[in-house]
Specification:
The protein is an alpha/beta fold and about 475 residues long. The protein is built from 15 helices and 22 strands. Bound molecules: uridine 5'-triphosphate.
Length: about 475
Amino acid sequence: LSPFGNSPIVAIKDVQMRAPAELYQKLTRYGQQHLLGFWDLLTEQQRVELCAEIAQVDFEAIAGCLRNQTEQNPWSVLSRAAEPPPTANGQLVSDASLDEARAAGRGALAKGQIGVVLVAGGQGTRLGFDHPKGMLPVGPVSGRTLFEILIDLVRARADLHGCRIPVVVMTSLATHDATVRYFADHDRLGLNAEDLEIVCQGNMPAVDRESGKILLAEPHRLALSPDGHGGLLQALEHHGTLARLGSRGIRHLFYAQIDNPLAQICDPLTIGFHTLRNSEMTTQVVRKTDPLQRVGNVVLLDNRVQVIEYSDLPEQVARQRAPDGSLRLWAGNIAVHVISVAFLERVAQRGPPLPFHLAVKRVPYVDANGRSQEPREPNAIKFERFIFDLLPSAQNAMVVEIDPAEGFAPVKNGLDVSTENPHTAQAAMTLQHARRWRAFGGQIHAGAVLELHPLVALDTRRLQDWIRRLPVCAASTYLQP
Ligand code: UTP
């Protein structure tokens, strides 16, 4: 029976016993029988839909999460033992080892062992854009969308290394249909049909924060939301994607988020360290610029690389300094990883399952009388899994430090917020492309914006050709191969 007290959600008239008895009993075991409260008012079709949604719910997991929620958060204690993570490309690493890693990365690409995963699910609430985030135009001159920019990067890498790179795009209920249509309408952005798979992530129901009762969005629909980017693991397993990738010889997946147009997709150095050190999961990090910066903290704890969310790291620990005055826990997570396929298969089949993180959010729902409620205050708990929680299970997990100016410009917010918005991402792209152009002797007039297609930016020969033809970029220009 429900371990939770009374709340408006459960003040519902007795569930009619005409609902299937087995289902009713199952729900009663978890104190969730109110989900059948409108059964008698539903059409046959609505009943089928409701049962299908209920069948997807892992009630045991939800009950477990809610029970554990009351336990003291162990991070406040655990994090005191956290150490900075060792980096593969730290200060003591010689140029020769960097070259060796780059060569190994190029080798793995050339052998066709690398695939790409772009997570493009979630709900993009903060951005407030009416379409999937991936459809947001951010190319500073080209107006190319996030999908186009990141797929251009994949195709540029495939071209440079003479290989095929399959791409998996993970969507959510909120983004799936529009994403499938977008790729179909745009000729799969130039990818071969066999090199693109679009898989939809799973959902988790939101529960009332007081009672733990699952909320209904409509009398026959649960209030569902995507299960977090960590839902990738189950999505890949559920859709058979891991097996398909494995059978075509893909050994490692390069993981990036669709909202980072600077992501160094298939960076040979990162892939090279990953393969040379037999790492099961390698993660790029940036040096934090502020102790309380809102990025996950990548640390070494219990001899395992782990991420402690910024909200879980006590301020006192976050502010600790090393003897040279730098931040002790300096490594910020930017959600760019290389993950081995065999590792993903092992965890998907044998665990440990990724834990759920709980977030208190505002979730509209229908009350016991069938009236829609739009709460003003956070009323519900949502459950999400995070992909970085794979790190502690990975053998030889490793960290590669990158310069944020060269790899991290996330688009999280709309223009009403001054940070991590489409303009800051465009500005970062513009600066990066200008640096690249100038590094090879090109010039740019003040006020002119230069945007480089990845094949121009990454292929030195092409870049130099362009600079010979256009030594001074005088007006805003988008250079394509
Ligand atoms: P965020 O955590 O920024 O979430 O996702 P979001 O849904 O994009 O935006 P908000 O928080 O609602 O404003 C980081 C990346 O992970 C993907 C997103 O598409 C984005 O690329 N993601 C997030 C998923 O694929 N699934 C999820 O459930 C959550």
